[in-house]
Amino acid sequence: MVDINPIVKISKQYLILLERYENKSMSMDDYRKLLFEIKLFWLEHSKAVSYFLNSIDAEDEVAFLAGANRLDIKNNGHFKFILAGKIRIINDPFLKFSILYSGNSDEIDYTFFDAYMADCLLDTIAVLRNYAGDFFVLPIEGIEKRITEDFNSVLIESSEQMVLSMVECYYVDKRHFYDDNPSFEIIESRLITFVNQFLIYSGIADRGLSLRERVNNYLLNNGSKIKLFSRLSEAEQFFAITQQFCIQAISIAIVSLEYSLIPFIRNDVVFQYYSLVLNTNMFEERKSNKDVLKETVLFIISRKNGLFFDDYLEFKESYGNGKLVEEVIQRVPEDDIPDPKDLLDTVNQVLKGKCI
After folding, report:
1. 1, 132, 206, 332: least CB-packed within 10 angstroms?
2. Which one, of 337, 252, 330, lies nearest residue 289 by Cα?
């Protein structure tokens, strides 16, 4: 059984650090100072964090928030995450902006950055202050520059190969792909049939759209990226958008396999790409059917609306720490991964029986 006591102590110290910036009007220099302190804090505790992560066994049932930057307590994200595993980790959301450690703030959109940081600060403080022991905030993907650079290099290379493998033609590299695919229609005609259902960019509704419509909808929903993408060819647009989701999905798979963690994915786009990654031969180690089933059940439950009580503690006691998920799994034949629609019916039956 993994020992959480050192992490509990670290969490209390981290809360004290963040509280110094609570309710404070922040300039870019203030944010840079905060991020520097955060990086320094995790460097000081890197051995303890590494030991904890490497001590985890599958039997410990440790879950991590995947494909999302923060728990989002104000929208009841804690009610759904408490259903996952017996120990739950949130990857520190502040480390995303490591570019500021070197003072390169000109590369950051301050309006977006300020809103992001304010939300993360409030959410993380609420997690550590009000839900201590239920959720832990840790730097899962590493802190040291060399480690993160090596990890990112692996993600970029493997995701590029993943996108290239989605079409029936063979391409040496993405430049070759760009030259041979002048339009979305040509790319779509060359996609491997089973892959096409996974290539969504805005939501499941994308499945009924052409590739051109999917890309256009994505750009409309992400207005800040339109200017950048307008300078790219259609092949480059497809590749860039698809690769970013592949990077995210591969990262989730690597972390979950490396540390025996259960990924809790609540975004349908991210889950589709993660499922696609699991259908490849990218990793020597394969997840068991039960692991995949558990992850799928968690995803389906995460998409249910209104899944919470007025009393969080009552909800946690009745359904949290894997109880609800295990009850759903018990209704599925052993070593079977049912069709998602059938699994959704099973989830609904369980929830109806509990009047949730």
Report:
1. 1
2. 337
